[in-house]
Amino acid sequence: MWNPGEDGIIRRSDRVPDVPVGLSRFQQIVLHQGRIERFFLDHIRKHSKDTLRVERGVLPESLHIDEDTLEDHSPDNYPITVQLQHLTEEEATPAQSNGSTVNDGLFRSNLAEDDTDDLIAKSRDKAGSTETVRAKYMVGCDGAHSWTRRQLGFQLEGEPTDFIWGVLDVIPITDFPDIRMRCAVHSSGNGSLMVIPRENKLVRLYIQLKEIKPDASGRADRSKITPDTIITAAQKIIAPYNLSYEYCDWWTAYQIGQRVGTNFDYKNRVFLAGDAFNLGWKLGLVVKGVAQPSILKTYQAERRRIAQDLIDFDHKFSRLFSGRPAKDVMDEEGVNMEEFKQAFIKGNMFASGLSVDYGTSMLVAKPGNAADQGDGTDVSSSQPNKVIGQQELASNTKLGMRFPNYKVLNQADARPWEFQQRLRSDGRFRIIVFAGNIVNAQQSARLQNFCRRLASSSLLAPHLYKDIDILTLHSSKRTDVELLRDFPDVLHPFDAKTGWDYNSVYVDDVAYHEESGEAYSGYGVNRETGCVVVTRPDQYVGYIDACDEEGFAGVEAYFKGILAS
Amino acid sequence: MWNPGEDGIIRRSDRVPDVPVGLSRFQQIVLHQGRIERFFLDHIRKHSKDTLRVERGVLPESLHIDEDTLEDHSPDNYPITVQLQHLTEEEATPAQSNGSTVNDGLFRSNLAEDDTDDLIAKSRDKAGSTETVRAKYMVGCDGAHSWTRRQLGFQLEGEPTDFIWGVLDVIPITDFPDIRMRCAVHSSGNGSLMVIPRENKLVRLYIQLKEIKPDASGRADRSKITPDTIITAAQKIIAPYNLSYEYCDWWTAYQIGQRVGTNFDYKNRVFLAGDAFNLGWKLGLVVKGVAQPSILKTYQAERRRIAQDLIDFDHKFSRLFSGRPAKDVMDEEGVNMEEFKQAFIKGNMFASGLSVDYGTSMLVAKPGNAADQGDGTDVSSSQPNKVIGQQELASNTKLGMRFPNYKVLNQADARPWEFQQRLRSDGRFRIIVFAGNIVNAQQSARLQNFCRRLASSSLLAPHLYKDIDILTLHSSKRTDVELLRDFPDVLHPFDAKTGWDYNSVYVDDVAYHEESGEAYSGYGVNRETGCVVVTRPDQYVGYIDACDEEGFAGVEAYFKGILAS
């Protein structure tokens, strides 16, 4: 962080790590949005065997929902009808693609007008083709210009600010020492900027444009915003250091605002995106007939609560960022730099995604009132008796939060794994059997009982491995036990063509080459008696119970509130 | 390791890690040969911009070397002429590709005859086309059937053994507990086998075929070797455990032998491969005119010494592996299992490649006699005074061995790096400046002097960054120094379009999220005064001297014995 000293000149005032220490094995990295998109496109292609393609240049015209059949979940009921307009080649090619991006940085900025209706109208005049789609479910975007939100009549709450910021992706030529560090610079009177290093010597600069103000209508004069005016603003902020560039990769500008939608779903049939990870697996399981349609209402409950928390934070943070630093303790209008630092650290925590703690619902078996812990929607289980997990059996593995990661060893080959790597995002729930110390005959018997019930459960057995995966982590010495001799078959199933499964049973033991052997204490599980944890397909912890016959009854009850059959 | 107990039944007798503990951050992995080849082909394509292609179905017919011009290294002298025969489509398609590989596992096994001459003759009859290639240098293969070796009249020393082993790549169906561990099984009377786990549940099994013996001519009856006879042999060895398979990916069989060539180069113009890593960069630098042609003679000196060591080890190891285990201490004909275990551990060390220690030469400035430390070739420097590095300045960074790896931080962005990742295999020498504690004014002055001489050296300056890269590692606190203020420009060069280089200066300091800060003690370098290490393009340590004006004179003398101009 760089703030003005007493002489008004910026100096490095503080340093904090980008990622809170000890939070995750992953560090922060800035990836170009195009790379993320490419990754998704490649995987859609691969996993659909090239049958699914993303269409572009297609705009929606009308949405009709058959209210009478919304509750009918039979496979051939498609209550949603959307009319699509395929844009002509000319309309589908934005002006930005015709020239250099450097010349049209404000394309699709929130400083520009919404051009959806205009595009549809023009395209219709030019006889672009139309298409009618009938669907069970529909997912729209949640941006300020969302057409789907407009059709549903949902509102955005919140207001834009007067702050306008420019963005430059450039290879900087500068003597500013922290140009390869993510950092914030508050100048005494010329505004603030943020430095975000990227790949190939590129740096993304967020630059406050103090000289650009919205007019009475709330709109800024876009003609004044160019890469030249933005870099000039940056040069004033970062003085006495020099800053220029020869190569600009991209630029834009936008008006800061924090708005959140009042609703994210319409009767569990039409959804506004925002957390694809949360919505995707739920829709998938319902469409496949694996899960009850009622789990869909947890999307809005879980999504909106987090969105509101984030917006509240960003509201405060953007004002701390764009405000003038306090000259001294008497300067009450200025921003307190210690407060800014604390917000910066909290922002890092938010960005990591690991602070999310979902409220109780049919998917998260924890105590309390579902409406209070979410966005007000009732997402409690339809089961007559509320199922509640035994949090104390895995004290550091919190119901409603991500299943934490520790290093474990594969029992069959002693290879170390980050345990989380075994929880693939493949749409499956997971029963994670903390088998405890199975060298102890009594514990071994408890495990056998749990497994016997699991293998013969008429509710769960038909779903095993296909919709519900099983992972085992025991705490005996690896060399004291054998996979085939000491673990029931359901934990490492046999296949007539490929033999036993060697990738499902793990041990919390010391590796030859890496630190490990602390997983049980990390998860907060008793090494002797273990427990059973159920994770949702998005790796959030849904249920915890004992690794025995009674515990199995609890696991079954949890799934009864979720599975369709 | 599995050996017979007193009752003659195999039991797990011992366990050792695959890779010696603490040796490297990399662990062992088995990669399919086709994947390695694909990797090379992709990179040849990429880095040659698709101008270089590997041709197949081309065989050499004749080799002519113009002895009179071998010493003439002018750019237009091509003393080697090779006549090539392009095989017809039919000849170029081995019988193996026509059917299943499972039906022809002995294709190109050393149990099969050399078919080179036969292929050439048949192809000529069928009017395949010929081609004449004139070359400066030529690289042939070093296998038992090497055509190039035959033309040069070099010999293979050593003899085949009577041991014949089969190989099966299968998905095993078995109750043998260690099927996912690399392990060795010695049965009491049915021979030995080795288990090497692969990807996708595949396991490679090496299986001793005790019932197949070479006849008087030294040849085995190949018709008796099939996947069935091999798995039957395995079943006898591994009893009382069961072993079968449904899926076989590939199989072969071969006769064990250890043979090493008498020569690996002919007058520094024709080379026999075997260590492409060692030969490639030397040839590249000579062809580009960067290095003196005399460095080429270090290839045979370095290669043959290592090959002989490895063959000597394998000679002993294969006999320990194929021999019958001793029944008791009185059983002198049997193999001592403790001796086998020690050889197994030594084999793991060999396989890692990190035990290589090259002798003194113009490329490795260490004391002693070049002929004694290599294969007898005189590879000492042509310099009037022998250059010898100051080993004591980097006591754990051995002249002649690979530059070790420790974790360091980038000075500009605090990102941790495995330092070895900065020593890319791009054909460049590297001057690694251990700058020491540059907060100390005296040490800073020593660094300035070294850098001033380096930047103005008429020998080295023209090669900087293009043929000789520079990396810096200092030991001050990262936050006490600034890249631009405290380090001479030559250590982080400026480019008018892309600004300063931020990827050349590192620090041995503590990272936020990872263990680090032990590099200087790891390399054995004094934290106050530092030193300078020169690495060859293959990351072997060539020279060590002080980080001052006098040390620079040594660095210059070392390069004088290598660089062409």
Automatic annotation (TrEMBL), chains A, B:
It comes from the Eukaryota. Residues 356-563 form the Phenol hydroxylase-like C-terminal dimerisation domain. Residues 112-313 form the FAD-binding domain. Keywords: FAD, Flavoprotein, Oxidoreductase. The keyword Oxidoreductase applies. The keyword Transferase does not apply. InterPro entries: FAD-bd, FAD/NAD-bd_sf, Phe_hydrox_C_dim_dom, PHOX_C_sf, RIFMO-like, Thioredoxin-like_sf. GO terms for molecular function: FAD binding; oxidoreductase activity, acting on paired donors, with incorporation or reduction of molecular oxygen, NAD(P)H as one donor, and incorporation of one atom of oxygen. Belongs to the PheA/TfdB FAD monooxygenase family. This is Phenol 2-monooxygenase. It comes from Neocucurbitaria cava.
